[in-house]
Design a protein that fits this description.
With 135 residues, the protein is mainly alpha-helical. It has six helices and two strands. Strands 1-2 form a two-stranded antiparallel sheet. Strand 1 (99-102) and strand 2 (107-109) form a beta hairpin. The protein is elongated.
Amino acid sequence: MTVDQAPRDPMQEAKRRGFEPRDVPAPGVALAVLGILVSIGLAAAFVAAVLAWFPESLSQATPLETIREAPPKPRLEVSPRASGAAVQAAARARLEGYAWTDREAGRARIPIERAMKLLTGHGWPDAPENGADQR
């Protein structure tokens, strides 16, 4: 073996190449991890102390929280078939039922079948003759 081929000290060779191959010191890592865990424990204790200091604010609901409000329209249909059936039943009741539309003027709603029979029997009412446009 020549002098150039002789094994060199690894630390000297690493420093010559520009880096240091030492490991991270284990006590420093252990202290850092311990510090993080202690910090987490202190933060949890602080939160628990704050929650214990104000227990009544957590158990009581504010007036805003107790109001039951319906969501704004349009609302979600829970059962589209039932909603459609209700709309059709209301329309059918209007078409087939009697009701006042303007009691003072003597106007009433009558079933559509009855209205068609009255029109076929009496005809369409004539236009008023008080000078209205007659075509």
